Amino acid sequence: MEVKNGTPLRTALYDEHKKLNATMIDFHGWDMPLQYTSIIKEHMSVRNDVGMFDISHMGDIVISGPGSDNYVDYIFPSRISLLKNNECMYTAFLNPSGNMIDDTIIYRLSGEKFFLIPNASNIDKIYKWMIDNKKDYDVTIENYSNIISHIAVQGPKSVDVLKNLGMEFPEQFKFLYSDAKKYNAITGKNEIIISGTGYTGEKGVELIVPNELAADMWNSVLNEVKKLNGLPCGLGARDTLRMEKGMLLSGQDFNENKNPYEASISFIVNIDHEFIGKEALMKQKNEYTDIFRGFKLENRNIPRNGFNIYINGNIEGTITSGTVSPILNTGIGLGYINRKYSKSGTEAFIKIRDNMVKAEIVKPKILK
User: Fold this and answer.
1) Residues 6 or more apart from 88 whose CB is under 8 A from it?
2) What is the model's pTM?
3) Percent with pLDDT over 90 in the chain
4) What is the mean pLDDT of the chain?
5) Which member of 6, 223, 330, 353 has the lowest number of beta carbons within 10 Å of its beta carbon?
């Protein structure tokens, strides 16, 4: 990636996006593809066949050293030290108030080495936060975000894409390595990481490669994706896909103002160890008022961030994300509702402009 005279950050794949006539937008300071064809076509390609994304704007931070086990347990509410080599986990950074600063995937590369991926808008913030909370732990923390690229291959035919490229397909939340011609600073070897992760709710992988290999890898994957009726996909489809599956967006569905219980990801919390924010979080465990839920509207109106949710004529919640679901062909939203009204099937109304639009409250994973 690079910055020139204040222009947006660009991934190593920027020129490939321009060749494909992608519609580019500013995303948290990054010049990223919104779409190549249409958001709906790209969304349906992932659900029915396969799609590929440049997600190289995401961060890359490595923790290593004899104190790494204790350190990762201290900075996360999850027991990261229980991960085995070649396993990864979804978790979140908490502030001292028990609220989420950012969410992430963390990988165990070896006994004394971990790798994590902060969100693009939080890379510098998280790196500094990790350094500030290093204390006396015997660890080295390195930020490789400017030299590593990520390509996501998502959808039911992603297995065929990897097979045709001669790569193994990992299980979910596990990862494999494949030999490469360039040095990967994350692993310390000439190889790429094939990770059984994604942000679409579909079967898929994320390929973590050195920048020098990104363009060749992108075009090799693109060639196989096209053979399988797939498409390159932009941030627009990535957003609609994650909303259908109830996946949180850092900075929008939470912004240091929600804890894991409120955000419906209490599974990341393991109370059997000490971690930053634990004391505050334990106090809030049974006291929080609102909880993260999904909302299915009765028509194609779009509930936008900040729209109020009404129960019995009273404001009882707020929408944080919304779109029209290409699969359900109706408006959907994610947001927070008073816990006493959070049962699936409860009727609510969302105020969209001057209209009260009926909606059904469901679990965050709106599309099963």
Assistant:
1) 105, 106, 107, 108, 173, 174, 175, 195, 196, 197
2) 0.96
3) 97
4) 97
5) 6
State the DSSP code for 220: H
Report whether 206 belongs to an annotated binding site.
yes
Summarised one tens digit per residue, pLDDT across range 157-191 is 999 999 999 999 999 999 999 999 999 999 999 99
CA distance 3 to 248: 29
Percent of residues, the chain, with pLDDT higher than 70: 98
Q: Give residue limits of the domains in the chain.
A: 1-246+272-285, 288-362
Q: Say what the pLDDT of residue 8 is.
A: 84
Long-range contacts at 159-168 (CB < 8 A, ≥ 24 apart) = 159/203, 160/50, 160/224, 160/228, 161/50, 161/221, 161/224, 161/225, 161/228, 161/230, 162/194, 162/205, 164/224, 164/227, 165/220, 165/221, 165/224, 167/194, 168/194
Report the pLDDT averaged over residues 97-107. Answer: 98
Which of 128-132's residues contact partners 24+ apart within 8 Å by CB, and which partners? 129/93, 129/101, 130/61, 130/63, 130/75
What sign results for the dihedral spanned by CA atoms 368, 53, 243, 147? positive
| Residue 163, both tokens | 């097979």
Question: Whole-angstrom Cα distance, residue 365 to residue 119?
Answer: 21
CA angle 189, 195, 197 (to 5 degrees): 155
Architecture of the domain delimited by 288-362: Beta Barrel (2.40)
Surface-to-core class of residue 178, CB atoms within 10 Å of its CB (0-12 exposed, 13-18 middle, 19+ buried): middle
pLDDT digits (tens, 9 = 90+) for 123-162: 999 999 999 999 999 999 999 999 999 999 999 999 999 9
Strand pairing partners for 332? 296, 323
Torsion angle of C-alpha atoms 234, 291, 79, 279, degrees rounded to 10: 130
Residue that has been written with the tokens 């006493």 in this structure:
340
Q: Which of 325, 231, 243 shows the shortest CA–CA distance to 36?
A: 231
Task: Report the pLDDT value the prediction gives residue 2, as an integer from 0 to 100.
Answer: 43
In the CATH scheme, what architecture does the domain 1-246+272-285 have? 2-Layer Sandwich (3.30)
Q: At what angle do helices 235-244 and 39-48 cross, to 10 degrees?
A: 50
